[in-house]
């Protein structure tokens, strides 16, 4: 089984996509302790490293992952995007932007057969041209670099318009012919709207469901299809938190159905909104049942002021969505577990790549990699 290492791993959106595509996730690197804890629960057999990537050497990374020099198949990751995001200040001197460079430095030092790195579309802005060019120079001419791939998640069967940019490079001697068109969504992709995605989850959410245990609720059935199959199952070997998987399979329960306490006046405002309309006070948008969810925002952690992201309003209920509903809209399976609080679970979901998009992309890579080895 081909191996890879996930840098800036977060809660594990890329890792899950990789595992489902057929890769062994050998190691994951993440400095956020809560995200790292979530990754450990969902990927108990992965080597985890709480280390700042900027100070990490390739030799050390391979040693921790128990991979010999020259034996790494892939290096994947999603460097922090806040410095490139259109909703931020977009300063070219933002220190976080350097972490994109460090990903390519570690490609140079570990020499994987391929690399796969994602970020927000804002990274393609002309102001970051020099940063992109300097990063790419680090990997040298031994890699073939594809043009950046823009991937709106809804075109890949995910019920959100969230768009990410993927940079993919590979050593030609290990791959059969592969190009940007190889990663295009399939023509027969199953379009999933908000209503379809949230089917089976409880509609009436008690505002008193505030504790971890009260967030565990029974779930009904989804309509059959590709999306439903990945929400319900497709659990790779050695992946999944044993408690969450057991409760889901044996008792049909999911975590994260946490309520939010709205005042009567707020609930009335939310109920009066038309689909797609934005609340004038909270700025929260009401979801369209037959549409797609807009990009879910992550909010900020302790180090950036503890700002909670604005959460979409449910399409038929006068309340914001729950963490489990957010996970569904991002394409995470029901057995995947997040932090026990609304704030941190929304941060983890909002910061994640959709595992369904990651699975699609990495399946293309593994197919070409194995084809070249045969």
Please tell me about this protein's structure:
The protein has 374 residues and is of the alpha/beta class. It has a domain at 3-187 and 353-373: Rossmann fold (3-Layer(aba) Sandwich). It has twelve helices and ten strands. Helix 3 crosses helix 4, helix 4 (98-110) packs parallel to helix 5 and helix 10 runs parallel beside helix 11 (342-350).
Query: Order of SSEs, N→C?
Result: EHEHEHEHEHEEEHEHHEHHHH
Round the mean pLDDT to the nearest integer and report it: 90
Low-confidence stretches: none
Kindly state the number of beta strands: 10
The CATH homology group name of the domain at 3-187 and 353-373: Vaccinia Virus protein VP39
CATH topology of the domain at 3-187 and 353-373: Rossmann fold
């Amino acid at each position: 089984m081909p191996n890879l290492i996930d840098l800036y791993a977060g809660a594990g959106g890329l890792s899950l996509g990789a595992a489902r595509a057929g890769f062994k996730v050998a190691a994951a690197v993440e400095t956020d302790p809560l995200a790292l804890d979530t990754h450990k629960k969902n990927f108990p057999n992965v080597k985890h490293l709480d280390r700042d990537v900027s100070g990490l050497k390739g030799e050390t990374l391979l040693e921790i992952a128990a991979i010999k020099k020259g034996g790494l198949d892939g290096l994947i990751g999603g460097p922090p995007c806040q410095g490139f995001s259109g909703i931020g200040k977009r300063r070219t001197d933002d220190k976080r932007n350097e972490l994109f460079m460090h990903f390519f430095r570690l490609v140079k030092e570990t020499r994987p057969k391929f690399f796969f790195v994602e970020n927000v579309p804002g990274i393609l802005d002309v102001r970051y041209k020099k940063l992109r060019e300097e990063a790419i120079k680090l990997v040298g001419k031994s890699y073939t670099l594809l043009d950046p791939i823009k991937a709106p998640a809804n075109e890949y069967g995910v019920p959100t318009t969230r768009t990410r940019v993927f940079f993919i490079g590979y050593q030609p001697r290990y791959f059969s012919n592969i190009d940007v068109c190889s990663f295009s969504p399939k023509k027969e992709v199953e379009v999933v709207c908000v209503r379809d995605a949230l089917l089976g989850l409880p509609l009436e959410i008690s505002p008193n469901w505030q504790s971890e245990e009260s967030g565990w609720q029974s779930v009904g059935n989804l309509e059959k299809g590709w999306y439903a199959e990945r929400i319900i199952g497709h659990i790779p070997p050695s992946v999944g938190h044993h408690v969450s998987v057991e409760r889901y399979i044996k008792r049909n329960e999911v975590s994260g159905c946490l309520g939010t306490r709205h005042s009567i006046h707020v609930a009335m405002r939310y109920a009066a909104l038309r689909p797609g309309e934005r609340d004038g006070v909270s700025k929260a948008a009401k979801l369209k049942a037959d549409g797609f969810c807009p990009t879910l925002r992550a909010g900020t952690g302790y180090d950036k002021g503890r700002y909670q992201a604005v959460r979409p309003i449910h399409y038929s209920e006068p309340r914001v969505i729950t963490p489990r509903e957010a996970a569904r809209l991002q394409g995470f399976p029901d057995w995947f577990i997040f932090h026990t609080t609304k704030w941190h679970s929304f941060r983890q979901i909002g910061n994640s790549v959709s595992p369904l998009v990651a699975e699609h992309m990495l399946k293309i890579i593994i197919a070409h990699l194995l084809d070249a080895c045969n």
